[in-house]
Design a protein that fits this description.
The protein is 42% helix and 20% strand. With 469 residues, the protein is α/β, with parallel strands linked by helices. The protein is globular. Bound molecules: aspartic acid and magnesium ion (MG).
């Protein structure tokens, strides 16, 4: 069995956390081939990636010692962890290597300060340095307990386009390079420890895959290496039926479909982003989310199967604004919806939910509250003429509102689910302001006032006995 697994920044943020990781790797590597992908150390005292990015911007603003100030602290954090985790021989090999890396970016940041300009390309070089250090540290920690492990920079494996800061992998070239480099290591029983977040253009210039990009790195390698499963080690037991801060009886879902995962992540649950895991989803590779700090828990298994159950989870997006555009002349006025959404898009607002009843007297849409004002201004410009003709008579905003989404692939084709949702809310005295359900029937979304948000989540959670099933 071949596993590709990623440890997120908190899972590798302190020496205690890394000790857990070493235990997990030791256990899982026993009778399997495993590749691990690591984020930068995200310690409560020093967030590596954030501090590197801040230093790079400070350099661009003229502070020529910005990186030189943070570099020794980062070096110290990594070396202190190394001394706790591995042998003196490993530490004395690691130290000059990490020091050279920090010297290099300190030099680079002095040049940035001289030029007074930070290019996206230079930012990628600096911000990806944390992963390079941590892969070396963790490989040293694994060797410290007698495992065969090797740190590998993903710049040798993941080939991307040159869109710095948000690069896209070129999958064919990536497959060729990663298989050539990693398969022989796996065959000899070695654990490759690969940097998350970074890649390189075909000519070898470092890129990054976007903030939080280590999940993407893991999915890319899982796909190109034909992994049997891809695991994401995080600081939670898995995907939950609801936010436990809102619904204390929420529990971890043992199984979920890809589709359900996507719906949940769109609706604000802290799950894997669908774009990030597309490479493994396309190939039907099962995904597991597991807890580094509770490895005995089986976590959540996510596959292409539509697992049993109807409404499985309920999530909420807070701080939304509901914009309603209405007027008697909107009936049969072709193109008005296109113009409305065009205007909202021009305002840079992300539409979270759309609803229009077939009377066509009004269209309502929800956007994040911070975008509402710009969206409304743009709508007023766009619809100026329609106001003059009284086709459109009002643009109203209600805020803050909460969008509650009830998710489950099994809701499709099952009558009565919507009835159960709205019946329960009605009984609880919660007023529903707007409703949307796409024709995939995976998700029923509704809008309630901010004051009703938590109660709505708890009511739906309870109505479908999500805590028990
Ligand atoms: N270290 C990178 C970040 O903080 C990538 C990751 O952790 O996924 O964005
Ligand atoms: Mg992260």
């Amino acid at each position: 069995m071949r596993l590709v697994m990623k440890f997120g920044g908190t899972s590798v943020g302190t020496s205690d956390a890394i000790r857990q990781v070493v235990e997990i790797v030791r256990d899982t590597a026993r009778n399997r081939q495993i590749v691990i992908i690591v984020s930068a150390m995200n310690s409560p005292d020093l967030r590596t990636t954030d501090s590197l990015i801040q230093a790079a911007y400070a350099a661009a603003a003229g502070n020529d010692s910005a990186t030189a100030e943070v570099a020794p602290r980062l070096l110290d954090m990594h070396m202190r962890a190394a001394h706790e985790l591995t042998t003196p021989e490993e530490c004395s090999r690691l130290e000059p290597e990490l020091r050279a890396m920090f010297d290099y970016i300190s030099d680079l940041s002095r040049s940035i300060a001289v030029l007074g300009e930070l290019t996206p390309r230079a930012l990628d070089l600096i911000s990806g340095q944390g992963e390079r250090c941590n892969a070396r540290l963790i490989a040293a920690a694994l060797r410290g307990v007698g495992l065969d492990a090797e740190a590998i920079d993903a710049t040798d494996l993941i080939v991307t386009n040159a869109r710095f800061g948000d690069a896209t992998p070129l999958m064919d070239q990536t497959a060729e390079r990663s298989r050539k480099r990693l398969l022989p290591l796996l065959q000899r029983g070695c654990v490759p420890v690969v940097t998350g977040f970074i890649g390189a253009t075909p000519n070898g210039i470092t890129t990054t895959l976007g903030r939080g990009g280590s999940d993407y790195s893991c999915a890319i390698l899982g796909a190109t290496l034909d992994a049997d499963e891809v695991w994401f080690w995080k600081e939670v037991d898995g995907v939950m039926t609801a936010n436990p801060k809102v619904a204390p009886e929420a529990r971890t879902l043992p199984v979920l479909s890809y589709q359900e995962m996507a719906e949940l992540s769109y609706y604000g649950a802290n799950v894997l982003h669908p774009k990030t895991v597309r490479p493994v989803v396309q190939r039907g590779i099962p995904i597991r989310i597991r807890n580094t700090f509770n490895p005995a828990h089986p976590g959540t298994l996510i596959t292409g199967d539509t697992a049993a159950g109807t409404a499985k989870a309920v999530t909420a997006i807070r701080d939304a604004s509901l914009i309603t555009i209405g007027g008697p002349g909107m009936l049969g006025l072709t193109g008005v919806a296109a113009r409305i959404f065009g205007a909202v898009a021009r305002a840079g607002a992300n539409t979270l939910l759309i609803s229009q009843a077939s009377s066509e007297q009004n269209v309502c849409l929800a956007v994040p509250r911070r975008d509402a004002e710009a969206a409304v201004n743009e709508l007023r410009c766009e619809l100026d003429n329609d106001f003059a003709h009284h086709d459109v008579e009002h643009i109203g905003v209600q805020e803050p509102v909460v969008i509650v989404a009830v998710v489950g692939s099994g809701m499709r084709g099952t009558p009565g689910i919507a009835g159960q949702v709205f019946g329960a809310l009605g009984e609880a005295g919660i007023n529903v302001i707007a409703i949307a359900q796409g024709s995939t029937e995976n998700n029923i979304s509704l809008v309630v006032t901010d004051a009703d948000g938590d109660a709505a989540v708890r009511t739906v959670h309870h109505a479908f006995a999500m805590e028990a099933s």
